[in-house]
Write a structure and sequence with these properties.
By secondary structure, the chain is mostly beta strands. Helix content is 12%, strand content 45%. Strand 16 and strand 17 form a beta hairpin.
Amino acid sequence: MKKKFFKWTVLTLLVAGVLAGGWFYGVKPLIAKIKGDVIDPNDVVEVTKDTVEITFKSSGTVTAKQDIKVTSKPSGILKAVYVKEGQYVKKGQKVGLVKPGRNEFEDYKPMPIYTEASGTVVKCLDSDNDRDLSERDLSLPRLGTFLNGSYDAADKATCFLRVVNMDILQIPIYVSEQQVMKLKKGMFAEVQIAALGKDAPALKGTVSHVSTQTEKSGSRWSDSKGFLVIVELPRENQNILLGVNAAITVPVQKKENVLVIPANALFEKDGKSYAFKYLGGNKTEKTEIETGLSNDKLVEVTKGLAEHDKVLTVLPYGESW
């Protein structure tokens, strides 16, 4: 009994499938051809000439092009700070005084700390930003702080303060191997700073560096790798602060005054490209076309259509695809 029921079920499904297929691929297209279905005017667009542009988009954090760590040469106790955060200093200016040794009983002559560049004084970044705000040092080092010094390896010494030049800003981003092939040094970059407001005009930047090898992203929250690309941006009296987010758009390829159709008017099948030309009177013609540059909105047509032709943005009724 169960076997008989199973056979009938399978047979019923097969018949239903055949009927559905026959309707979709046979009867329905035939009715459409005989009847001539009404085409919605909203689904008809004109072939025009326009500009097709491919862009690279990314985002990053604004940094200063010059950001120099100032350290003490000898290790010792900080005895004086001569500058304040936000103050402009000149190269070679005395900014602090350190007494070599680990305590007050070591009788060494205090030594000054000098800057190696001109710029604005900012505090060193706190390496432990996860600490409670009340426990974090939000200013320059306090008097009595012990500073590890170095005469030849400043990266291993305690950061006393930083001197930044904010006339030229940088936005480092890390891109994939597919993306880096599209980017070249000197390319124009449009930069949108969210902190300036949504209505603020885009700023003009330049791609100043494109790495030739993968690097770590440099973020302590991520171990991801990519190709380092740097976009430079003149500050030009804009109120842009370090660490704010920036959206970057780089025009990669552009063609002007070329024949185009909307991206949704392109239909692809078996490795070929087609458009459905509207002939009027609810009639269409499937036309093979050749395409060029394209983005998510427009497709360049190099062969198969002419300016002012009309095409559909949807498949005609009864067309199997």
